[in-house]
Amino acid sequence: MAPTDEDPLAPTAEDGEPSDRQATPAAPAPHCRPPLSDAVAQGGRMPRWLPRAMVLALALIASFQLGSWAFHQLTGLLINILIAFFLALAIEPAVSRMAAHGMRRGLATFLVFLGLAVVTAGFITLLGSMLAGQIIKMIEGFPDYLDSLINWINETFHTHLKRVDVQEGLLHSDWLRKYVQNSAAGVLDVSAQVLGGLFRLLTVGLFSFYFAADGPRLRRALCSVLPPARQAEVLRAWEIAVDKTGGYLYSRGLMALISGVAHYILLEAMGVPYAPVLGVWVGLVSQFIPTIGTYLAGALPMLIAFTVNPWYAVWVLVFVVIYQQFENYVLQPKLTAKTVDIHPAVAFGSVVAGTALLGAVGALIAIPAVATLQAFLGAYVKRYAVTDDPRVHGHRGRGRGGPGMLTRVRRLWAGGPGGREQP
């Protein structure tokens, strides 16, 4: 028999017993891992932290979505509260002064609001009567204006138009019928906007009243949840905000009075009707609509003056431009130096940013808000003495670069035709 490599002592299949090679499977290599299906089949489990992490992530996403939805739904209310807060800051000095003389803060706040309401109602009434009078005057003079326009067209273009034909064509035109239909359909929208505006005004008034009347209680409630060091900072910021907002309002009110009186004198001298109301209009609009308020306010007096004499409108425009320069460079720096001391470029940028964020409301509260922030940060910014350098004052002196060009030209000119500099 041929020799074999098998162990003669090892059992064989012929003996009826399984061999070791067939009974014992080969062990897997140490670096090899079973597949995931094998691991699951062998009883592998999900980590305990994974379900909690998934639930927490879903809860955070749901909370973010709910908060975003609630913020968008409450944006109008938040803006009203912001307006009310700044209005309360503006009247805080007057209320505190009246309360210091023994009057209750609620009664003092009510008296201040009553005075503001009376002034506002009187101004709206006078302005409404002026506009109504002008509209009636324009309607009564419309036939004469139309006759003069038709005569000019006939003389210029050699036509034969008549006022009766023009009126009949206007009354039976399609665009007029569509305009009336659209106007009738928009009556409900206008009514809804008016009611919404009244409700918003009432909301702002109520919140302003509560903020001003319960100002000390509100400050105590806010400070009760803060440590003593933070309480001092909050109270300081509150005081700065009151000073800046109140100072801004009172300085604007004084400039509005001066502007109104100046424009009233001009309009009264030219015989323009409704001169007192127009003066009040120019004073308020020019001061409480930043940057372009003066030109917007001057449009109405120019229109009324044009009905009297076209040249009067030109004189009003010239006066508005000159007064704007006088106010910007002489009057405003002196009145706002101690109340709202911010650079004109910063004020303009804040107005633009406030308008982009909150519209007209942002334009009104941007300047006092920036002035408050500037004053609050200025208390924590360390300042140093400025070195005495000519460049600080806006001109160059004799620095390291030697004498200036003008000095060298003078020396060359004094040196004679040879062009040599004199020592």
From TrEMBL:
<comment type="similarity">
    <text>Belongs to the autoinducer-2 exporter (AI-2E) (TC 2.A.86) family.</text>
</comment>
<feature type="region of interest" description="Disordered">
    <location>
        <begin position="1"/>
        <end position="37"/>
    </location>
</feature>
<keyword id="KW-0813">Transport</keyword>
<keyword id="KW-0472">Membrane</keyword>
<protein>
    <submittedName>
        <fullName>AI-2E family transporter</fullName>
    </submittedName>
</protein>
<feature type="transmembrane region" description="Helical">
    <location>
        <begin position="346"/>
        <end position="373"/>
    </location>
</feature>
<dbReference type="InterPro" id="IPR002549">
    <property type="entry name" value="AI-2E-like"/>
</dbReference>
<feature type="transmembrane region" description="Helical">
    <location>
        <begin position="77"/>
        <end position="95"/>
    </location>
</feature>
<keyword id="KW-0812">Transmembrane</keyword>
<feature type="transmembrane region" description="Helical">
    <location>
        <begin position="249"/>
        <end position="267"/>
    </location>
</feature>
<dbReference type="Pfam" id="PF01594">
    <property type="entry name" value="AI-2E_transport"/>
</dbReference>
<feature type="transmembrane region" description="Helical">
    <location>
        <begin position="273"/>
        <end position="296"/>
    </location>
</feature>
<feature type="transmembrane region" description="Helical">
    <location>
        <begin position="107"/>
        <end position="136"/>
    </location>
</feature>
<feature type="transmembrane region" description="Helical">
    <location>
        <begin position="303"/>
        <end position="326"/>
    </location>
</feature>
<keyword id="KW-1003">Cell membrane</keyword>
<feature type="transmembrane region" description="Helical">
    <location>
        <begin position="190"/>
        <end position="212"/>
    </location>
</feature>
<keyword id="KW-1133">Transmembrane helix</keyword>
